[in-house]
Design goal:
Two copies of one chain form a homodimer. By secondary structure, chain A is mainly α. Chain A has nine helices and no strands.
Amino acid sequence: MDKRSEQKAKTRIKLINAALELSSTKGFAALSLREVAQAAEIAPTAFYRHFRDMEELGLSLVDEIAVSLRRLLRNARKNSEAKDLSSLTRFSIETFIEYVNENANLFRLLLGERQGASDTFRAALRKEIDLFVVELSEDLDRLAVMQNQKLRHSGYAAEAIVTIVFTIGAEALDLPPFKQEALKIRIVEEVNMILRGARETSRVKTKR
Amino acid sequence: MDKRSEQKAKTRIKLINAALELSSTKGFAALSLREVAQAAEIAPTAFYRHFRDMEELGLSLVDEIAVSLRRLLRNARKNSEAKDLSSLTRFSIETFIEYVNENANLFRLLLGERQGASDTFRAALRKEIDLFVVELSEDLDRLAVMQNQKLRHSGYAAEAIVTIVFTIGAEALDLPPFKQEALKIRIVEEVNMILRGARETSRVKTKR
DNA sequence: TGTACATCAGTGAACGCGCGTTCACTGATGTAC
DNA sequence: TGTACATCAGTGAACGCGCGTTCACTGATGTAC
């Protein structure tokens, strides 16, 4: 690869990381172009070689989130075979919390700007979350078949689970590790509650 | 009452409303003291007669939210007698969506700053939401007794319900009224799912 | 009631500062011959 | 390979602007006698 474009790519990444880091404390909306440039160790004017303005940078951050979410899903699935539903749930939630800790800034952005940010920004984030819900919904259906069970409304169940896991999981960001264990338990309990509620108890269905 | 303090109170309310209105489009974090003052039609310097800084104003907004949430709860309870659980759920969620529409700006703030805002701000919001969860949890227990049912973990159920209703309900803010009906159905389905999962099917418990 | 003084919400000028953006530039890297 | 020119990521000065905050002030309202 070009030495020139290689260097450019590096600077771009520095900008993205700087924005990610700064946004985690004060929120993306409160960032200035100049402070991001400074944190990335370039002159403010060089910013424009990479992004038209802060909004465009923001959309790149959403892309980062998207890539990262897909990686999360892949990891969770990789180990999802030959397990009963209950330990799979537990395992997936642990994977998730781990991911949240490793990508704290990305995650804060994902949840923090879901409301309040610009329309474009908000829509882009919504799209990624919806995608995630669809994927989970398909996984739930597949699992149900494997376990000879039926789910009503796997779509609703998936949406409810994602909402719970993301929102409560976000609290992990403010907690010391030793308190995260209790959080995991809460999430696991609530997700199991949803799964139980989504299951068709065949006893009710078949007339005896 | 003092004519002077009466006037002062009016100006204070103007400041609060201005901040609420402005924050709904760009987020509270992005507001400047001067633009809030201008929207409230006072000189920037008069701001200091009411609040030490923007953070203090923010905490007053949280108070507004708190008052408003309590009013919501009271309304929902007022009509909660002599109804079966399913129509009560439906009714409560309708009350809630109505409330969200009427207090759109307060609600946007409540959800938007849950992440990302300053620590004080975030903690204050968390406290209000937790209070709400506790109240709902007690209501659920009371209802279960009335209906001769048992709930496991009414606390978890309440937390899951509040998370779902608030988060999905927030989407109502971006929707035209005719699309809100579908949203309500989604919320009702998901809440029922949680309630179903929380119910102890006595068949499982008693040994026949 | 009238008068003299105190209070205090709101004003307007002024300050230094960081902001986003423009512009002409530099100098290392890339390309054509 | 060497040379001459083109490209373009990053620079630094400069701009006008809105920011938060200070300060001495005004004038309506409140209070004491």
